[in-house]
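Dear colleagues,

As part of the handover before I leave the project, I'm documenting each prediction I ran so the next person doesn't have to rerun anything. This entry is a single chain, and its sequence is reproduced below.
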Amino acid sequence: MDFEIKFVANENRSIALIKNKIIGECDFDVDGDTWLITHTFVDEKYGGRGIAKKLVLAIVDEAEKKNKKIIPLCSYAKKVLGKE
């Protein structure tokens, strides 16, 4: 089943959707020019498809476009970004 990743700026998160149902999200807090990735979650039914990684990278991509610094606080984002 195909999934879609959307960056939702006004909610400080990226979401993964299948048929308009949210199946995952990655949240961040804003501290000045820094985005702190605080939480990544994907429904276990959809695990193993690379969805969580795409959620993290969606935030990283938007941060780069806006010249923001990223600090991964959640363990998964640290792993994706090589900050463990």
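The longest helix spans residues 51-65. The chain has a mean pLDDT of 95.

All the best with the project,
I.
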